[in-house]
Amino acid sequence: GESVGLHLPTLSVQEGDNSIINCAYSNSASDYFIWYKQESGKGPQFIIDIRSNMDKRQGQRVTVLLNKTVKHLSLQIAATQPGDSAVYFCAEIPYSGGGADGLTFGKGTHLIIQP
Amino acid sequence: DAGVTQSPTHLIKTRGQQVTLRCSPKSGHDTVSWYQQALGQGPQFIFQYYEEEERQRGNFPDRFSGHQFPNYSSELNVNALLLGDSALYLCASSYGRELYEQYFGPGTRLTVT
User: Fold this and answer.
1) A95 to chain B: nearest residue by CA?
2) pLDDT digits over A40-77, tens only?
3) Which residue of A has its CA nearest to B99?
4) Would you call A46 and B42 a contact, using CB atoms and an 8 Å cutoff?
5) B28-65 per-position pLDDT tens digit
6) If you average pLDDT over residues A80-96, what whole number do you get?
7) How far is the C-alpha of B4 from the C-alpha of B16, rounded, in Å?
8) How far A103 CA lies from chain B's nearest CA (Å)?
9) Cβ neighbours around B78 below 10 Å, total
10) Nearest Cα to A107, choosing from A38, A58, A57?
11) Residues in chain A within 8 Å Cβ distance of B8
12) CA within 13 Å, CB half, B84
């Protein structure tokens, strides 16, 4: 079946550098995408979201880019800090509105911050 | 304002046994979704409860069942446990069945031996 996947399982960056985490999705009907951060021993924490009618959305130190032509999603973290170390998941909702088949998650990228 | 809480935090069971996990949603939320997260994988949707009924279900066998109480809290039951059921079980709450603003609890780590 269709699923959300990630390009890299592990990403190592220097503290202070920018991080880019990528995600590919295959369901063209996907309407809404979310990035989650999951620290060890904790549940996923919402970072930022984007609807399919948008190309870019910015938050505090984070930016999500959506390229519907190639079905690609990315999360950019500016000035990476030690507290950014975590596993990052992209997730999609295939339909507008609630009540769909739950969120579909990718496998995750482990972001490691080097001092 | 209490977030999503889950109990217990850890649990060890033997194959064939049954287990019940509990979740209390974030204040103001009325919908609870359950996810299974195997080690090194992303969470997989099990089912969603709203108005005390199962509304949506993922690709999980009938051994997985649940319940929602009038106070919106929820239970996940798994019968005839298999080794492959070992995972982190996450509860997420939202309002009005919306998936857009789901808040996750810390999870229950289930180990089946």
Assistant:
1) B99
2) 889 999 999 999 999 999 999 999 999 999 999 999 99
3) A98
4) no
5) 999 999 999 998 889 999 999 999 999 989 999 999 99
6) 88
7) 29
8) 7
9) 24
10) A38
11) none
12) 4
